[in-house]
Amino acid sequence: MTTPTAAALAGIIDHTLLTPEATAADVADLVSQARRFGTWSVCISPAMLPLSGVELGGVRLATVCGFPSGKHTPDVKAREAAESVALDADEVDMVINLGLLRAGRVTDLTAEIATVRAAVPAPHLLKVIIESAVLSDEEIVTACHCAEEAGADFVKTSTGFHKAGGASVHAVELMAATVGGRLGVKASGGIRDYETACAMIDAGATRLGVSATASILAGAR
């Protein structure tokens, strides 16, 4: 198993706070932790933007859109994403409309992702949350193909809010094999210790979305 140092592991972590009850003080504390840990980014709800008076100190700023259900129209998702970019978000993690995927409406799903991609222009990053725990292997592969065709930068396993669960090693392996290094793979949801984080990396994850960052990094050898 891969055994990254705490510093190396922190460098691929989106230190995450997406609870509905989060306050501005909570977010400021999150950023302070991220700076101390050396994480890649903090990931917060769009309503917490902009981070007025909070010094990021090199930590990137990520947010979500269409979260957590994905049951928003493409135009609403795009407007939400565009507003977040205007409020200094570096990265946007969008939730797809799972109903489109489950119904086989592949063209519509690709178009939805492309609409949000247009609102999140490079060098901003777009990650596509597919809620892999709900999907069959075939659906996971299809979702990854749609994300790639639409120009996304990452595919992401989960919101962490779905009752079906979060990331699994199998889903990450399948997603990584499908995108073949052309897109990043973000594992998120249910990653709470160092061993699980390492397993996700071994499976092909290039980014981790976690809230238990302190506990995970404490396990590094």
TrEMBL record:
Q: Name one GO biological process term.
A: deoxyribonucleotide catabolic process
Pathway(s) the chain acts in:
Carbohydrate degradation; 2-deoxy-D-ribose 1-phosphate degradation; D-glyceraldehyde 3-phosphate and acetaldehyde from 2-deoxy-alpha-D-ribose 1-phosphate: step 2/2
Enzyme Commission numbers on file: 4.1.2.4
Q: Name one GO molecular function term.
A: deoxyribose-phosphate aldolase activity
- Classification via CDD domains: DeoC
State the active site: 93 (proton donor/acceptor), 156 (schiff-base intermediate with acetaldehyde), 186 (proton donor/acceptor)
Keywords for the protein's UniProt record, in alphabetical order: Cytoplasm, Lyase, Schiff base
Subcellular location per UniProt equals: Cytoplasm
Name the chemical reaction catalysed here.
Answer: 2-deoxy-D-ribose 5-phosphate = D-glyceraldehyde 3-phosphate + acetaldehyde
Q: An example Gene Ontology cellular component term from the record?
A: cytoplasm
Domain of life, per lineage: Bacteria
Checking Gene3D superfamilies in the record gives: Aldolase class I
Indicate the enzyme's highest-level EC class: lyase
One Pfam family it belongs to: DeoC
Checking NCBIfam families in the record gives: deoC
| Role description | Catalyzes a reversible aldol reaction between acetaldehyde and D-glyceraldehyde 3-phosphate to generate 2-deoxy-D-ribose 5-phosphate.
Sequence similarity: Belongs to the DeoC/FbaB aldolase family. DeoC type 1 subfamily.
Identify the PANTHER family for this entry.
DEOXYRIBOSE-PHOSPHATE ALDOLASE
This protein is called Deoxyribose-phosphate aldolase
- Its gene name is deoC
